[in-house]
Amino acid sequence: MRKQFAVIGLGRFGSSVCHELNEMNHEVLAIDNDEQKVDKLSKHATQAIVADGTDEKMLKNIGIRNFDHVIIAIGEDIQASILCTLILKEMNIKQVWVKAQNDYHHKVLDKIGADKIFHPEHDMGQRIAEFLTSEKVIDYIDLSEDFSIIEIIATKKVIGKTLAEMDVRAKYGCTILAIKHSKGVNVTPNADETIKEGDLLVVIGHKNDLKRFQRDGI
Ligand code: ADP
After folding, report:
1. Which residue range forms the structural domain that includes residue 88?
2. What atom of ligand 1 comes closest to residue 52's alpha carbon?
3. ipTM summary value
4. Per-residue pLDDT reduced to its tens digit, 124-175
5. Domain total for the chain?
6. Residue list, ligand 1 pocket, CB within 6 Å
7. Which of 36, 146, 153, 165 sits in a 20 to 30 Å window from 140, CA-based?
């Protein structure tokens, strides 16, 4: 289904969000107070306009109320990011997602009702560190402070074994959600499924359990 999004702030983060949403064929309204940024992005949005995200009157005039989902990617200017969030939440926009610069910014955004808060640089740093410290892990999603999903390469240690033989849940407290192989993805695989060379396992669990599994179980 085609959805409507507005993105305020077209720096590196905001513009790449616009690009992706546009590629996915959603309707994207892109806003920045810098004309050059707007010009650069105009090809990758349904509409791109030069405007200040803290100007309440202007936001009303462009009909931002009709958008269910607004992403605020104003970078350095924390005050503008907070004010823009406040205005949009007061207008009852359902989903206001905001890029935070630091923990203080995050706290304020949380207090004033931001529905999702991103730390792209920090998250990317964490992901890269995770990859650097394990050659087996090829992707990683943080679900919360304690839980993650990892995508891990099946090694010689498990190739030829069935899931029942691996017994990951009893031994490590993790669950294998899916097995990816060249022909596709097997979601919720059976216990008698045999791991083959080149398979990738998608595993969910507590971070400590996943670490033990990475170290000793595969
Ligand atoms: P990034 O780290 O994602 O590149 P930047 O700080 O470089 O972030 O970019 C933030 C963008 O937000 C810039 O393009 C800037 O012009 C825009 N911006 C800053 N303040 C406002 C505002 N009040 N209204 C609209 N856009 C803004």
Report:
1. 4-118
2. 24
3. 0.95
4. 777 777 767 777 888 888 888 889 999 999 999 999 999 999 999 999 999 9
5. 2
6. 8-14, 31-34, 37, 52-54, 73-77, 80
7. 165
